[in-house]
Amino acid sequence: xxxxxxxxxxxxxxxxxxxxxxxxxxxxxxxxxxxxxxxxxxxxxxxxxxxxxxxxxxxxxxxxxxxxxxxxxxxxxxxxxxxxxxxxxxxxxxxxxxxxxxxxxxxxxxxxxxxxxxxxxxxxxxxxxxxxxxxxxxxxxxxxxxxxxxxxxxxxxxxxxxxxxxxxxxxxxxxxxxxxxxxxxxxxxxxxxxxxxxxxxxxxxxxxxxxxxxxxxxxxxxxxxxxxxxx
Length: 231
Ligand SMILES: Nc1ncnc2c1ncn2[C@@H]1O[C@H](COP(=O)(O)OP(=O)(O)OP(=O)(O)O)[C@@H](O)[C@H]1O
Ligand SMILES: [Mg+2]
Known about the structure:
The chain is an alpha/beta fold. It has helices at residues 49-56, 79-89, 105-115, 120-134, 149-161, 179-195, 207-210; strands at 5-18, 21-34, 38-42, 64-69, 72-73, 90-94, 167-171, 199-203, 215-220, 223-229. It contains seven helices and ten strands. A hairpin with a 2-residue loop joins strand 1 (5-18) and strand 2 (21-34). Helix 3 (105-115) packs across helix 4, helix 3 (105-115) runs parallel beside helix 5 and helix 5 (149-161) packs parallel to helix 6.
């Protein structure tokens, strides 16, 4: 059976103007990611990984080329349409969790649904679902500084999942965690990946973390250097 592509890039570039000179930091001729794949992105610091992830997340636009997300050409959409697509289909996970310090765990997780204007009843139900999924029910009313790194990352993952995204974009999600906690988070992502119809694109410097993907794409100087299936 033909699987649909979650992501298709064609002749995609990102060029910055630095001191009057163009600097191309991303140059990808073609890349496709099928739905339900887990692609690890590796590469040296400065190779363009985060730039790529921001474009995939519709947080940034390419300078040239085409990006199809679930077969929709995102290149000519208005910012309002892009943010609608982002808020309904993409979950982000960051290295430093990016939780809001003044909100409790539950309030942080609920935030994307509040932005989406969902009714309190639905939000409460989805929150219960999320806490069942991540555990930590007894930490609902804790503030981020009252949680461990691993707990904060679980809360951040729940915040990404509460919109029921089809695509999870993660930038070094275990980069701020010790290796045991990092392993737990990866195990949790693995469980999610097999239980739900989600595509994962995950940036990491760590080859052991990258090995969890079904595919590893190595970026060098903004170009795809290698693209290997993990069998
Ligand atoms: N706004 C900008 N203006 C000019 N150059 C930029 C800008 N943002 C990023 N760059 C350059 O683009 C390149 C790629 O940056 P990017 O953040 O994607 O790297 P990365 O692979 O994520 O690195 P790291 O592993 O350190 O996070 C870098 O050389 C960086 O200096
Ligand atoms: Mg980066």
